[in-house]
TrEMBL record, chains A, B, C, D:
<dbReference type="InterPro" id="IPR019079">
    <property type="entry name" value="Capsule_synth_CapA"/>
</dbReference>
<feature type="domain" description="Capsule synthesis protein CapA">
    <location>
        <begin position="2"/>
        <end position="188"/>
    </location>
</feature>
<dbReference type="Pfam" id="PF13277">
    <property type="entry name" value="YmdB"/>
</dbReference>
<dbReference type="InterPro" id="IPR029052">
    <property type="entry name" value="Metallo-depent_PP-like"/>
</dbReference>
<protein>
    <submittedName>
        <fullName>TIGR00282 family metallophosphoesterase</fullName>
    </submittedName>
</protein>
<dbReference type="InterPro" id="IPR005235">
    <property type="entry name" value="YmdB-like"/>
</dbReference>
Length: 273, 273, 273, 273
């Protein structure tokens, strides 16, 4: 199966890139399924029901969220109605929605999509993501009930992210990090067959501070003083993520390449035209 | 000027890669100057005087350190004798050594090398890196006293790292992050001419947890229990960093490309042979 | 000199306690000077100009602030007009106002009042408080230019707070912590003569979570989910702080006792009637 | 039932105070049961099997631990042999030992003793303590299977500690914090009958930095540089804790007073002679 995963969609610039460029990218890559992290879709903070629908109509088959899952309050109710949205397994004991889902491609092949939050350097404490992932992966062996399994590990620390990859190695098709909004150049297939990237990067404007307009965050770093709110940067977004081809029989990765299209970062695979 | 910067050298595997492969890489790239981050050279914790000399004899013109600067106690005395080693400007009020230095290439062209520690998510508090960098950059305008200026921003958070790039944009030739041990795929020339990469990655074994053998860190993440010490992973290291060509007149960047050679990561520029 | 210090005034309940009970308390204790921490006076977040004036008219001779110093935006301008308000020395490079001031009692005796922010477990990074305090204390030797010196060390960690006490021991009359909103029972005169208490506690309702109504913080701790804003608890506040008598000649402490009046905590010295 | 709880025993000074002064204190207070936090008994880091036995022979009926539970490696095996030692419920998934125990006084009355770790500002992440405590308290309703229940909430943040008190209010006899090594002066009986103190303080030398000799921690705070290890301060320790009388029928608190004996802090109840 050919699976495209794109990192955190950042505000209007990110939405525009998805609406205008995801469908052609999907076709060009012949992706069977597309998963998109949507936790920053609405003004950089969470994702409204309307924006979730927009992404799902624009070429995404499934959305993941993150620590900002419910920053937009209508998601609290919407997530229970839309089975294609996944919030972190360990978001909170009383969180609505689901921490994993199974989606199908046009040929009926199944992909498990799940997400967990790291514990290191996060703004709130979350329960152990490793045991949470363990349960879900045991229940969905790739090559068994599902043809492939994708883990979005939403975390800050590279140590914890690399640990998530090795922990799932051989049990998931793809472990891809999100949350830092910067793509990493460490894509590899781990020893037991799982495709891994520490962070997919964001779908946002890279002339920014993690997708936000530079002015206010720079002021805070330089002067220590706060003046305004953060607002997403409005320059052209780079679609950023990972493209993996999996073996339907084993669920393991055959190949994994970075995807970056548009905006300021060097294009890979070569420019979409 | 052509400047090669390589990220955190990680233990024996990293040292071996430097000793065996830095000189050919340097020649192939026709690098005029090479700067290497050495904070994890000795067992993953700090850098002994002997290992510092080894790196300087193996093709490095200058070494930077980081939060682990003085984990090996002999560096406390050695750093005052070796002007080619830079510790963070804001390491501590009473730290020995220097936070910036100027080195010269074979043709006498000068490169300022400086380093600062971020404040976000670090294990100890450090004073404001932005005002520290401001002073050093004002005193060394590229295109003036020096032909180029390189800032190693040793930090965890992508927000603070991107802020360091924009803060120095137009005033430094290169701002490159270190500390996370994972290379980022966001190399770009910022609007006012500074080459930027959030993290150079490590010179270490990428089948690991940030360069450490996987067993013990995985145990701690999964079980919550400690058993052994961390030891560096011993597989072949990837040399990882950034290569920048600067304009000697303006000190700004003309081009910037990723460098990854050997080990498990995809090679760039194409494989060194 | 007899000096009363009261900890963080928390919202309306705290203001009411100051307005109604500070003047009688002051008289009963025969306090020469009263310093009050005002960082949570207005809705629990910062202190408006109007509320600052109210406290100064109700028996406080000087106000200190904290990490919430400028949560109420009108304080940014007001602090430069009112010399009796002190913000932390190390709040931020570009902060308005002053980090220390000297006030005088009815007999002309002078008290230095200064404040610093700790670095451990704080929500933002601050520069080194120890060197900042060092400069101010050197310039104002108690028993010299001033008869006494009070340091409000606004910090979370007990280790850093105890360190601040020992660091200033013999150089300040009083080192008293603030910020945790819980009074500590460790009042002592340190070996070289400085009165010390790790935290003065808050002037607020102790049937609460650090002065906030219990409902929302409990929800967040128990369920992990956010619903409403925090609002200060409205039950009767306890005035909480420390009362120190100093030697005008040496500036050192002769005696130090806890003060807690009203609300839920056991009264000391015996109930004010 | 009359229950005495003493906070973190700190090194040799703390052990000596327990050995020499706990038995007389126990008799004078006519305590039916004594619980002691032992996480810093051995050199300030953890508690060896031998030191645990020493405390249990010196007047303690039960020991609690904390984040330092297994710093002394022989505790990993010993805790499974000694049912009177409790480690935190949420220490780690694979931790040996138990998170709660039931002990009996001379008249056969039963006391539940349990411990949980907070999540805020701790050096490692722990799973949700509130749901862990909920399960234990539901299974041991005071006034039912046990006559009383004591919760040692081992945490840094005053907000989380106060939340633990309100969460257990009416369901436990005593909620007492540990870990900060400074006693708080906020002892109260909460609205539904639970005796509460944010922190019991340590049994250690208060002319110190949280029980450690001042020299090295002061050096680190002031200079930012490390030289030596931390070692416990050796001055006379203060026994520090809380004494609660409970109603055997309801399990709720009738009275709660601070206990501080010896060393530098003001004695309460009046000096033991
Ligand atoms: Fe996130
Ligand atoms: Fe995000
Ligand atoms: Fe580092
Ligand atoms: Fe490093
Ligand atoms: Fe406060
Ligand atoms: Fe505060
Ligand atoms: Fe502890
Ligand atoms: Fe402790």
């Amino acid at each position: 199966m050919k699976i495209l995963f794109l990192g955190d969609v950042m505000g209007r610039a990110g939405r525009r890139a998805i609406v205008e460029r995801l469908q052609p990218l999907r076709e060009r890559l012949k992706a069977d399924l597309v998963v998109v992290n949507a936790e920053n879709t609405s003004g950089g903070r969470g994702c409204t029901a309307g924006h979730a629908q927009l992404l799902l109509e624009s070429g995404a088959d499934c959305l993941t969220l993150g620590d900002h899952a419910f920053d937009q309050k209508d998601m609290l109710a919407f997530i229970d109605k839309e089975s294609r949205i996944v919030r972190p397994l360990n978001f909170a004991k009383d969180a609505p929605g689901r921490g994993h889902t199974v989606i199908s491609d046009a040929r009926g092949r199944k992909l498990l999509v799940t997400q967990a939050l790291g514990q290191v350097f996060m703004s709130r404490p979350y329960d152990d993501p490793f045991s949470a992932l363990d349960g879900v992966l045991r229940a969905h062996p790739p090559g068994g009930l599902v043809q492939a399994a994708l883990v979005d590990f939403h975390a800050e620390a590279t140590s914890e992210k690399m640990a998530s990859g090795h922990f799932c190695d051989g049990r998931a098709s793809i472990v891809v990090g999100t949350h830092t909004h910067v793509p990493t150049a460490d894509i590899q297939i781990l020893p037991r067959g799982t495709a891994f990237q520490s962070d997919a990067g964001m779908c946002g404007d890279y002339d920014s501070i993690i997708g936000m307009d530079k002015t206010e965050p720079l002021r805070r770093f330089i002067t220590g003083m706060t003046r305004d709110r953060f607002t997403p940067a409005e320059g052209e977004a780079t679609l950023s993520g990972i493209f993996v081809e999996t073996d339907d029989r084993t669920g393991l990765a055959r190949s994994a390449i970075p995807v970056r299209q548009g905006g300021r970062l060097a294009a890979t695979p070569d420019e979409l035209t």
